[in-house]
Specification:
Length: 472
């Protein structure tokens, strides 16, 4: 016989943060399929496998501090609404966006495991059907959930083979030659860490971002959209400038936000009757910061699920993430490549700091010493005082299928925090999927932000003379 409450396990510090009062952070993964989905296939798979995973077969204790093993009735977690396809017509994208948006105001039932799956056999511009996986962030971070997805799928080119894992390489460690260099790099790390922690401290206390048209918002309901661009285009720029894909993405984001904000300020000037002869409508000394997620696992890349679930694993399942406060360079540049150079310069300095690791340690200390209420209040302050959140995940290297259903795209996002703008990047085969979550009262037109990203990417290719190497 199955015992209703078989065992208990404490939540990690970050897991407690994500389910603390006033935060309640959830991950939403939208998966587009190239064929209509048989709901029974999903149910059958879950019935055979969900009990094998401790997080997806556990519920929270009443005080939110421990996981309690419980029996899972998968029918309570899978939803396949009947939809009138004739009524939807060509508006499949809006129907899916509206459906997911409504989920953000419907809390997960805490009397059972904190996840659900929604199957929408609706044709969109990028897929024949869409599945929405919603899970509470306390169950695991994006790296954990992506590893679970990879373990549940197979290569489309060979349905007997598991997807190829991204190359697992240890984080680069500095090799010092001589006492002087050792002292120099150690001093630099310590100084950068002190500076970063001081800036975080004043951000928690009082330092807020500039009140731009993208700051603020009152809506609890969020709205998600995605766009697919060419990963090969990003690699062309990366290789030409000898940078990382992450540097290029941050540069594209800075360029897009600069153009988007400039347009909004120009519109305000018109409405206020001010002169609009100047091309640059941005205010000077604009402070715009984003919380950039950092994976704290010592190995980069995905690991098999068995390795992640093993006790003592260095790449274990859970919320082993932190963040850095990244100052975005907002301004109009004559050369689009300047945005990438500035992003790389800032990120390189952030990498030479123990800030993200110490944030994770301090968060755990505060929760253990002062309790969940104080810990949550401390965590919320930098979120309230910054404007955006950015995350980048390396996805499957080739096209994958779930029980024979080929996957067209994977678009992750999250909600439950006060920032009006959340940007997620995920690579999939030869695609880069950009997913944007917005407060619709602040950003009613996220597709215009996508347009700015694509235009910025083309401007960067033009500056490098790469427009002939179009890979679309």
């Amino acid at each position: 016989m199955w015992k209703e409450e078989e065992e208990e396990e404490p939540l990690s510090p970050m897991a407690r943060v994500f389910q603390s009062p006033g935060i309640d952070n959830c991950i939403v993964i939208t998966i587009g399929f190239k064929a209509k989905i048989n709901v029974e296939v999903i149910l059958d798979d879950l019935k055979h496998n969900v009990s094998k995973h401790p997080r997806f077969s556990s519920k929270l204790s009443d005080n939110g501090a421990r996981w309690i093993k419980t029996k899972v009735n998968v029918e309570d977690h899978v939803f396949a609404p009947n939809v009138d396809l004739e009524e939807i017509g060509e508006d499949g994208d809006d129907f899916v966006d509206d459906y997911i948006s409504r989920l953000t105001v419907v809390p997960l039932d805490r009397s059972r495991p904190l996840w659900d799956i929604h199957i929408l056999n609706v044709k969109t511009s990028d897929a024949e059907a869409v599945t929405v996986i919603r899970s509470h962030h306390s169950l695991g971070d994006g790296m954990s959930l992506m590893s679970l997805l990879l373990a549940s799928t197979r290569k489309t080119s060979n349905l007997e083979e598991f997807p190829t894992m991204t190359t697992s390489s240890k984080r680069r460690k500095m090799v010092f030659h001589g006492l002087i260099l050792t002292i120099f790099y150690a001093s630099k790390m310590i100084w950068n860490t002190i500076a970063d922690f001081f800036l975080l401290f004043v951000t928690i206390l009082f330092l807020k971002d500039t009140e731009t048209p993208l700051k603020g918002g009152v809506s609890i309901q969020k709205r998600f959209s995605h766009r697919i661009i060419s990963l090969d285009d990003l690699k062309l720029i990366k290789n030409a400038m000898d940078m990382t894909i992450n540097d290029v993405l941050l540069g594209v984001t800075q360029a897009a936000l600069s153009g988007y904000l400039n347009r909004l300020y120009g519109k305000q000037n018109v409405e206020n009757g001010a002169s609009t002869s100047n091309r640059n409508n941005l205010p000077s000394k604009l402070r715009f910061r984003a919380g950039v997620a950092v994976n704290l696992r010592p190995n980069i890349g995905f690991k098999p699920m068995a390795d992640m679930m093993a006790k003592g694993s260095k790449c274990r399942w859970g919320n082993y993430i932190s963040f850095i406060v990244f100052p975005m360079s907002i301004g109009l540049e004559t050369d689009a490549l300047v945005y990438i150079s500035k992003a790389k310069s800032t990120m390189d300095r952030k990498k030479h700091s123990f800030h993200s690791a110490l944030v994770y340690i301090v968060t755990g200390f505060v929760f253990k010493t002062f309790g969940a209420k104080v810990g949550a209040a401390l965590f919320k302050r930098p979120v309230l005082h910054t404007t955006a959140s950015i995350s980048n995940i390396v996805g499957p290297m080739e096209e994958i299928s779930f029980h024979g259903y080929p996957i067209a795209y994977i678009a992750p996002s999250s909600y439950g925090h006060s920032q009006p703008l959340v940007i997620h990047f995920l690579s999939y085969a030869k695609k880069m999927v950009i997913s944007i979550g917005v407060d619709p009262t602040v950003i009613p037109d996220p597709h215009k932000l996508f347009d700015e990203m694509e235009e910025s990417l083309q401007a960067m290719k033009a500056s490098l003379g790469l427009l002939d190497d179009v890979s679309h």
